[in-house]
Amino acid sequence: MKIVVGSDHAGFPLKASVVAYIESLGHEVVDVGSHDDQPVDFPDIAKDVTSLVTSGQADRGLMVCGTGVGASIAANKVKDIRAAVCHDIHSAHQCVEHDDVNVMCIGAQIVGAWLANDLIKAFLEAEFSTDEEFRRRVEKLKAMETGAE
Predict the structure, then answer these.
(1) How far is CA 119 from CA 7, 51, 59, 123, in A?
(2) The sheet that has 103-107: what strands, in order across it?
(3) Radius of gyration of the chain (CA)
(4) CATH of domain 2-146
(5) Which of 43, 61, 116, 123 could make a disulfide contact with 74, Cβ separation 3.0–4.6 Å?
(6) Known catalytic residue: 86?
(7) Which of 27, 87, 90, 98 is catalytic?
(8) Predicted structure pTM score
């Protein structure tokens, strides 16, 4: 898979190990920044991450900020993006399996590198369920997004 990774300044220290781990799993990484520890606004990074996912230039996205919350809020403002904050392994795989999440957000101030690796592995190995109930629910989310409920 091709994975787009972005971070704000709070996530920057963790991002290098995240990128290296994703590459070690055999995936291609597109790093959209930030590229140093200088302050940057997470909505700007979210736009860069989500634009590659929605255009099909990346299969999934990963955002690293202080808590993951701001990144998730920003990413979820974009049509066709379903982003989730994941700080435990169960959520990291179930968000894909049940909710077809395409952007995972993690908090560098919440998790360390070893847990981030476990989260990433669970997220990238997960596949959206073929069960009708989960497909139906995601279709309802899409309808809410467009106001076509």
Answers:
(1) 16, 23, 17, 6
(2) 28-31, 2-7, 60-65, 103-107, 83-85
(3) 14
(4) 3.40.1400.10
(5) 43
(6) no
(7) 98
(8) 0.95
What tokens were used for 149? 């409920």
Give the number of other Cβ atoms within 10 Å of residue 109's Cβ. 12
Six token digits for residue 102: 């395409």
Q: How far is CA 69 from CA 18, 137, 145, in A?
A: 18, 23, 20
Joined tokens for residue 15: 């991002």
Q: How many CB atoms sit inside 10 A of residue 38's CB?
A: 8
Q: Where do the domains of the chain lie? A: 2-146
Mind listing the pLDDT tens digit of every residue in the chain (149 residues)? 999 999 999 999 999 999 999 999 999 999 999 999 999 999 999 999 999 999 999 999 999 999 999 999 999 999 999 999 999 999 999 999 999 999 999 999 999 999 999 999 999 999 999 999 999 999 999 888 888 76
95 in active site? no
